[in-house]
């Protein structure tokens, strides 16, 4: 019952939230397109679009295709649990009303399963955006690695002498200015990625939070029924097992690209630190003043404005978030199993105590009858 209520509420609440907030998805798509154009070349964009399309189609097919067996098994399980066929009457607890089983399944499909799938498609949209942003962050990191190699070449003795001579003669260092210009372009790209992710957090943070909590509740509810084996039907075990697996994947896999974006963005900070170390000998000789300023601004921006996804500003979506999810569900299953075992032992002890008392009473009554026979 709890998983069904959670699934129904998630779809309705997310659709109502989107209707109230009226998120401008068109402008967000335009902003994402600008981020892609700043990060990737035209040839790379053509190759990446095919990759992103395949990933998006695969995620949609899995989420929809995995949910259909869960719904089908759930409908069969409900019919068997109430000992009704699809043309029979189903009692609606706790209202004591009745409705045809086929009508109940139809209403559940329209007002629970379909809104859930629609709300899940919104989450898949954010997941696809994360895959796009991950490729953008990887490209930024690759360009930073290239600039790191260029900085290492410029720091050799022969190149530094050449740069010093060039600066004395013309007052500028073309190689250092080119390096600083490329760093500035990458800083603008990184700022655009940060701005888009913050907008995504602001617009869909509530969707992230509610989707995750509902999927955890649904996974925990089905896991509880699976462990306790209370709802006994022919399809109870496959229903709860498949449901548990599907909702656990719903609660984790769509957020994996978001974690990958966060880690790729954090890796850029380390690469920038390596560039600063390699360029220190130039800065010490008072070469590349502009480069020094841009490096300082870049490091400050990355430290003050870290890239991460948040769920309604309640928790961050990172690697610890995924590990904690699996740990929580695993611990929950163990606690249920232990609690069920303790309850079985207590029931067995109580049954043994009652049996011993009954036997003692029978023996006492037998002894009393045997004692009274001679007197008669």
Automatic annotation (TrEMBL):
The species this protein belongs to is: Ramazzottius varieornatus (Water bear)
In terms of superkingdom, the source organism counts as Eukaryota
Membrane topology qualifier: Multi-pass membrane protein
The yes or no answer to whether the keyword Transmembrane helix is present is yes
**Pfam families given for it?**
7tm_7
Q: Which UniProt keywords apply?
A: Membrane, Transmembrane, Transmembrane helix
From the broadest rank down, the organism's phylogenetic lineage runs: Eukaryota, Metazoa, Ecdysozoa, Tardigrada, Eutardigrada
InterPro entries linked: 7TM_chemorcpt
GO BP, sorted A to Z: sensory perception of taste
Q: Where in the cell is it found?
A: Membrane
Instruction: Please provide one cellular component term from the Gene Ontology annotations of this protein.
Output: membrane
Residues that span the membrane, as ranges: 52-76, 113-134, 204-229, 241-261, 321-340
The protein's name in its UniProt record:
Gustatory receptor
């Amino acid at each position: 019952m709890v998983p069904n209520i959670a699934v129904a509420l998630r779809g309705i609440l997310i659709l109502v939230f989107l209707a109230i907030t009226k998120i401008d998805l068109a402008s967000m798509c335009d902003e994402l397109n600008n981020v892609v154009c700043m990060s990737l070349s035209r040839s790379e964009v053509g190759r990446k679009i095919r990759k992103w399309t395949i990933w998006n189609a695969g995620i949609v097919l899995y989420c929809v295709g995995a949910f259909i067996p869960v719904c089908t098994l759930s409908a069969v399980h409900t019919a068997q649990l109430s000992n009704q066929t699809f043309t029979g009457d189903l009692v609606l607890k706790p209202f004591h009303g009745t409705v045809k089983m086929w009508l109940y399944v139809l209403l559940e499909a329209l007002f629970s399963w379909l809104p859930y799938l629609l709300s899940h498609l919104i989450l898949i949209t954010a997941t696809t955006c994360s895959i796009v942003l991950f490729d953008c962050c990887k490209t930024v990191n690759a360009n930073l690695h290239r600039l790191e190699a260029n900085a290492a070449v410029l720091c050799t003795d022969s190149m530094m002498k050449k740069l010093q001579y060039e600066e004395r003669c013309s007052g500028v260092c073309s190689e250092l200015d080119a390096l600083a210009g490329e760093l500035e372009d990458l800083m603008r790209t990184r700022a655009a990625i940060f701005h888009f992710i913050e907008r995504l957090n602001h617009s869909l943070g509530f969707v992230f939070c509610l989707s995750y909590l509902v999927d955890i509740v649904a996974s925990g509810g089905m896991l509880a029924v699976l462990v306790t084996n209370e709802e006994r039907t022919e399809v109870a075990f496959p229903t709860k097992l498949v449901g548990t697996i599907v909702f656990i994947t719903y609660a984790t896999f769509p957020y994996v690209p978001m974690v990958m974006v966060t880690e790729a963005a954090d890796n850029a900070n380390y690469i920038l630190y390596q560039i600063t170390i390699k360029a220190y000998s130039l800065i010490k000789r008072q070469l590349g003043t502009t480069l020094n300023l841009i490096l300082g601004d870049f490091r400050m921006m990355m430290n003050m404005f870290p890239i991460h996804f948040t769920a309604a500003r309640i928790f961050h979506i990172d690697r610890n978030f995924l590990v904690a999810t699996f740990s929580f569900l695993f611990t929950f299953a163990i606690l249920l199993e232990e609690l069920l075992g303790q309850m079985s032992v207590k029931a067995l002890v109580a049954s043994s105590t009652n049996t011993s008392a009954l036997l003692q009473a029978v023996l006492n009554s037998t002894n009393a009858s045997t004692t009274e026979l001679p007197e008669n």
